[in-house]
Amino acid sequence: MKKISIILMCLCLWACDTEDKKVKKIEEVPVSGVVFQDDIVKLKYVDYGLDAKAKSDVLLWEKFIELEIIMSQLKVGDISYFQRESKEIVLLMKELRESIPDVVNTPSIQARLVTLETKMLKLQGTLILRNIPKEEHLQNVKEVLVAYSNLNLQINKKYEKDAQKIEKP
Fold it and tell me: Which among 116, 123, 144, 115 is positioned nearest to 32, based on CA atoms?
């Protein structure tokens, strides 16, 4: 019994000693490339604008005008708004949803606003990280632009549907 305990003790000491000898390999993670203005301008997506009727009603929606300015800056490659704290995005989108005019206040438009907020927060989160590849940054920029375009499309569809005069028999 004494011999077994001595052998086990030696094995434990020997096993502990091997961990110190292991060399830890440090993997280098590639640093993300900077998202350039030219890269954002080259992104291909369908960009919907607002119809004239929708534009006239939306001009009174101050937070939407602020969102338009942010998106127009993003389209030309200015990502500075998304490199700030996420609180600004959350606050803007909250105020946007709270101040939505009754003319465009539908569940589908509210859903597009939530989707846009999610994509904006995702972009903001990836721009802060240094180990995200440039392609992923560009993909997230494209997702934000597509979500904004889909919001505009949904607003246009709301006005198109309201313009139709469907008589019930």
Answer: 123
